[in-house]
Amino acid sequence: MKLEGKVAVVTGASRGIGRAIALEFAKEGANIVVNYRTRSEEAEEVVRRIEEIGRKALAVRADVSDPEQVEEMASLAFEEFGRVDVLVNNAGIIIKAPLEELAPEDWDRVISVNLNGVFYAMRSFGVRMMRQGGGSIINVASVAGHTPLEGGGAYSASKAGVIILTRQAAVEWGPKGIRVNAICPGPVLTDMLRSEYTEEELRRRERLTPAGRLGRPEDVAKLAVFLASDEASYITGAVYDVDGGLSASTYRLLHELLRQ
């Protein structure tokens, strides 16, 4: 197993991509801290699933936009398991509106969770990882961090910030034994995506994706396992798109539009 004996913290792990990463890590031998903010029942269900696999798990409530709560989560994780080898910053939200209609408080909330939350967790866990001799940090960004998302100005800006923060930390913390990489999912079938599109719109998006389907949370989770493992020991500062080829298909989409 690729993560045998490791301890991982996954933020926003009660559902969606975070849940899939937590479960995949457990299958590969890791013990897991399952972070959540409001969905306690879902988080405890993830813990039960992990324990059924034969690994240890702990559900920890913490709002990643609050640095004090993040620091408390880090202290608890190290107290419970003695070390943390992998941190996955997955927690995120989206509030869509044209820039001219985007309320300042909504902008602040998205940036606080999606970008500040990543920084707070990186700092709290990174300092401790340095003391223990190293670790791996995986930040879940988005292809929207490369390309503007219609009505998603705050979201795109936050994810672009996560990408450059990943590279900054990789450069600064590489000599200290910490690898930092980012994963940029495209359209992945989660509750968030389903809330944004109708079933017919989702089917149309499938047809327009070169891979011929939308992503699954497990597609992201399997890459996260690799980046967390010793097999990726020479990889840091990298940004991986997991989008079925969508980001590379500008001209394909243009031709499809012209044919219509």
The CATH H-level homologous superfamily = NAD(P)-binding Rossmann-like Domain
- CATH architecture, by name, is 3-Layer(aba) Sandwich
| Strand line-up across the major sheet | 3-2-1-4-5-6-7
Poorly predicted sequence stretches spanning 5 or more consecutive residues: none
Mean pLDDT: 95
CATH topology (level 3) name:
Rossmann fold
Brief overview:
By secondary structure, the protein is α/β, with parallel strands linked by helices. It contains nine helices and seven strands, in the order βαβαβαβαβαβαααβα.
What does this molecule look like?
With 260 residues, this protein is an alpha/beta fold. The protein has a single domain (7-259), classed as NAD(P)-binding Rossmann-like Domain (Rossmann fold, 3-Layer(aba) Sandwich). It contains nine helices and seven strands, in the order E-H-E-H-E-H-E-H-E-H-E-H-H-H-E-H. It has helices spanning 16-27, 40-53, 67-81, 104-132, 153-173, 191-196, 199-208, 217-228, 250-259, and strands at residues 7-10, 31-36, 57-61, 86-89, 135-140, 178-185, 239-242. Strand 5 (135-140), helix 5 (153-173) and strand 6 (178-185) form a beta-alpha-beta unit. The termini are far apart.
